[in-house]
TrEMBL record:
Keywords: Transferase. This is Sulfurtransferase complex subunit TusB. InterPro entries: DsrEFH-like (IPR027396), Sulphur_relay_TusB/DsrH (IPR007215). It comes from Buchnera aphidicola (Anoecia oenotherae). The gene is dsrH. Coiled coil: none annotated.
């Protein structure tokens, strides 16, 4: 499953979200969800739940975010589309 986090992590139930994440799932942060990746953010403690969390480059740039934690993988729209083909189901947060 592909989990898409589109809201600020301050406004969603991260505990519930990460309880639903399976080892075969992918997570991508879009729109205001990219705030999740800002370095020294308290929500980074959730990062240990999954190996790779993707961040959409265009949304980072649109919000002027530059201090991104290096453990996230920044991807573009083409790579995002590839993730949607990889996963037949999606959950939007």
């Amino acid at each position: 499953m592909l989990h898409t986090l589109m809201k600020s992590p301050y406004f969603i139930d991260l505990d519930t979200m990460f309880l639903m994440v399976d080892l075969n799932d992918d997570i991508i942060m879009l729109q205001d969800g990219v705030i999740f990746a800002v370095d020294e953010n308290f929500v980074l403690t959730y990062k240990s739940y999954i190996n790779i969390i993707y961040i959409l480059k265009e949304d980072l740039e649109a919000r002027g975010l530059k201090n991104i934690n290096s453990s996230f993988k920044v991807i573009n729209y083409i790579q995002f589309v590839q993730l949607t083909f990889k996963h037949t189901t999606q959950m939007n947060w």
